[in-house]
Design brief:
Layout: H1 9-18, H2 33-36, E1 42-48, E2 51-57, E3 60-64, E4 69-73, H3 79-87, E5 89-94, H4 100-106, H5 116-119, E6 124-125, E7 134-135, E8 140-148, H6 152-155, E9 157-167, E10 177-179, E11 185-187
Antiparallel strand pairs: 1-2, 1-5, 3-4, 4-9, 5-8, 6-7, 8-9, 10-11
The structure holds flavin mononucleotide.
């Protein structure tokens, strides 16, 4: 227990008597994302008539194994939205902790105003199946095509299909960052292996 949450036993008992939900404190429902947004913070590249751009994205989730579908929230306030709608293509690039401040800065400016690749000294590499570039400095790059945009008008939700994945096997720093929704990030830590218990899901272990 962290020093912040440590309470003397007596006061916890007293608060349990007056609170039917024990020691739980209520938070506003709109903060659910702070607990569930555990995937790594990513960057999304697009190509706007040949001009590459990058944005930062925290709202994403896996939806299906095969074909691999990923749900992504990309809003019309982002310059990237237009390019994604027009081309139906993007790359999801996964940065590691050495790029932390760059990732946040990229999410705080617009490709409508600046060339983010040159401003942030990132290297665009050609993808194979999409016009959007890979980012050389990232650990993983996933080439994606929009598979379904039916909910884009309502929730800014694009369903992307991953068509190709590029991983840098030589990168030393491999720790990804996880946004807590408030500008703080949790860095990957220890991995525990519970594969022997995954009796129903063996096919996803390779
Ligand atoms: C940590 C972080 C997470 C973000 N997550 C999202 C997101 O999930 N969806 C989104 O549309 N914008 C998100 N943004 C905001 C965009 O990255 C931001 O609007 C960016 O400047 C858009 O770039 P563009 O105008 O060049 O497309 C996030 C920004 C930060 C800093």
């Amino acid at each position: 227990m962290s020093p912040k949450s440590a309470k003397p036993a007596k006061s916890r008992k007293a608060s349990a008597r007056s609170n039917p939900r024990g020691g739980f404190e209520e938070l506003p429902a709109h903060k659910a994302y702070r607990f569930l947004e555990a995937g790594p913070i990513v960057m999304v590249t697009t190509s706007d008539k040949g001009k590459p751009n990058i944005m930062t994205m925290g709202f994403h989730m896996m939806i299906q194994h095969d074909p691999p579908l990923i749900g992504c929230v990309i809003g019309p306030w982002d310059h990237s939205y237009k390019a994604l709608c027009e081309t139906g293509e993007c790359v999801i690039a996964i940065p590691t902790v050495d790029l932390a401040t760059t990732v946040v800065d990229i999410g705080n400016c617009s490709g409508a105003d600046i060339d983010k690749f040159s401003t942030f000294r990132l290297t665009a590499l050609p993808a194979q199946d999409v016009a959007a570039p890979l980012i050389a400095e990232c650990l993983v790059n996933i080439e994606c095509k929009v598979a379904d945009r039916a909910l884009a008008g309502r929730y800014n939700l694009f369903i992307l299909e991953a068509v190709r994945i590029w991983v840098d096997p030589n990168r030393k720093e491999r720790r990804t960052m996880h946004h807590n929704g408030d500008g703080t990030f949790t860095i990957d830590g220890r991995t525990i292996n519970l594969q022997e218990r995954m009796v129903l899901w063996k096919q996803f272990q390779d």
